Amino acid sequence: MNALLARTSIDDPADVFLRSVGEVFAVLDERTQDSGNVSYGVALDGQRFFVKTAGRAHARATLDHPARIALLRNAAELARISHAAVPALRGVIESPAGPMLVYDWFDGESLHARRADRDDPASAYQRFRALPVERIVACLDTVFDLHVVLARAGWIAGDFYDGCLLYDFASSELRIIDLDTYHRGPHANTMGRMFGSTRFMAPEEFTLGASVDERTTVFNLGRTAFVFLGEPGAFRGSPTQLAAAARACEPAPERRFATVADLATAWRA
């Protein structure tokens, strides 16, 4: 076992430790995102890893440092669910600033594009949407499959959007990341406007006190299908897939599929 995977705790700051055991070839911090987390790409012994931390205690971010630590521990708990589309969690290292989650590295491009860049044909988002329909559908199948597994284990989606998807255009492989805010079991909306991208969110994710449950995940997945295959008037999938996505996105939760598994079955009918 290498010097990174062999450790379960350290006394040094994350960056100092990581540079002492391997080559830090990437740093994702407040310059690239506003979560407050700081993540590193680390190479050693012929392997590459993605190491996610809670970042600096006083970083200006949406969540404070204790909340970011709690989400990392939640992500480690979710990672007990194994799925080929999720980079494997190889270890958790306790540091003075909280846990460091060590994942396998994946050479994909984020499918998220900011609003100003969303129509740019050179963006990964638009290049993915321009792929043959069967390749997009294969990726959606993977997304649905993972959420069937997670839902059966009691996990409800939270803040799922195109930024959670990494795609390798050379190998046609997809990975699903950043599931830190998924919630164990149904729960009430205590925020009003919850975290997430408006294009993917269900009505209850905007309504204080509303119930957020598996039918919310169903809505998120239906919106994912529309975002990548086109809205109803320009949908590129089959009529069966259009019908499944449309039912998944019913505003009233009781009119949607009751479970993610039901949605996946209808999608493939």
Structure description:
The protein is α+β, with helices and mostly antiparallel strands. It has two domains: 14-104, 2-Layer Sandwich (Phosphorylase Kinase, domain 1), CATH 3.30.200; 109-267, Orthogonal Bundle (Transferase(Phosphotransferase), domain 1), CATH 1.10.510.10. It is 30% helix and 19% strand. It has seven helices and twelve strands. The chain has a five-stranded antiparallel β-sheet with strand order 1-2-3-5-4, with helices on both faces. A three-stranded antiparallel β-sheet has the order 6-8-9. Strands 7-10 form a two-stranded antiparallel ribbon. A hairpin with a 4-residue loop joins strand 8 and strand 9. The longest helix has 20 residues, at 133-152. It is globular. The mean pLDDT is 95.
